[in-house]
């Protein structure tokens, strides 16, 4: 069963901005799905339409086979939304915020209080439960939004930039938590600017740009299309001349070597050649995130195609 | 109405009541102080020189109008500020993403405004009892007029907040429309004191009917037929509630 089934979704804002251009998208039940795209690509509009915050121009969206148009109550009940901006009442306490949210979904108050304890504890917010939300740090506010979204125990959780602006320690603990709830069967749709996050968490991915889905595949097969990876080696001692046969490489400074490694080549070969020159490697890392490279490449090629087709249209129009 | 819908409505209503009770110094105390000053200045100091009006002491005459004035301003400002703040802070989205029928959103916010208006009405009535013995001609008419008026102005406040794009927009109507209409709505005088032309002009002002309907409930006297007042209140309520429902349904001011 699909958790989300979008067909021909189009959104044209007042003033004529076309944010979505008839996109089709399917997310399987239980998936951990990444929806990526540059700023203004249409991610937030897509999420806005799914969560009923934005009116669509045309197309359809089904949530667990419930039509958002024909069965909005059933469809909305399946969704938990963690928006990008803090949108809770800053003057209310954490307990009030989460218990009220459960109430809007028809959860009785006594059940809501039990769930408030469960989720505030799971997200390390229980100690702050009687404090107004404005007293929380940025990371705590992000976790509060996740707790609030889970209060009605949705089947699908949509997270729009959930870790924006939080430190790496909290980000990692949030990743662990999200992985756990996904393993319990909750479908998760994630948008993020941290591509490392998407690569680490998500099984499937769609990349959207200028209101069009430019790629929709599994994370594994997308990453497999990457032919060359660039590695940075931190070297012990100072080195002016290094020779590596069969590899493109650059000496960034006397301690740092950058090497391009094709998919069919082995890193062992690099290590062997460095070792034979008495060069000791202290550490090694990817130059950039693998997904980041693909993302930039896909978005750029999509834009180039769009520019070409517009150019052709102009040429045809001019005869 | 399903149990889920009932829980949602109850939650929103409790949240709205908690909001104005949490800031009671801003919401409950000022009307009590303002009305005390009205009673002292207009009732005691000036009123004692005016003599009788409509067969009652001036103080007795102005009590229903002053209660109504507080009810009108508080029901309006409660909903306009609460709904606009929810829009401004984006926490209106908590309601929009939830499976709540649109009428529940209206009923929750308007219900909060009505609760504050009734509480203020009780407070002002208690304050007025320190200055004058209050007579009650018809309790049902007092209750019906109070409810219909507070629902009407709470709905008007909601419509104002739906269209508002800044905090200035929610203060324009109370300052430039509501206050003048209330002061010219027969709170402090009987319409019979006015020349015929100005009596006719006053009867265009809807607040005249609310003040007089309420006064009839307390004193049994009114410048206009109280049944006509109640009828008008019902019509105004139906029109404004229908308009508010249509706006929320279309997502005006709340959905892009």
TrEMBL record, chain A:
It comes from the Bacteria. Keywords: ATP-binding, Nucleotide-binding, Transport. Residues 4-235 form the ABC transporter domain. The keyword Methyltransferase does not apply. GO terms for molecular function: ATP binding; ATP hydrolysis activity. This is Nod factor export ATP-binding protein I. It comes from Paraglaciecola mesophila KMM 241.
UniProtKB/TrEMBL annotation, chain B:
PROSITE patterns: ABC_TM2 (PS51012). One of its GO terms (cellular component) is ATP-binding cassette (ABC) transporter complex. It is found in: Cell inner membrane; Membrane. Residues 22-251 form the ABC transmembrane type-2 domain. Keywords: Cell membrane, Membrane, Transmembrane, Transmembrane helix, Transport. Its main location: membrane. One of its GO terms (molecular function) is ABC-type transporter activity. The chain crosses the membrane at residues 21-41, 61-79, 100-132, 138-163, 170-191, 226-248. It is a multi-pass membrane protein. NCBIfam families: PRK15066.1. Belongs to the ABC-2 integral membrane protein family. This is Transport permease protein. The gene is yadH.
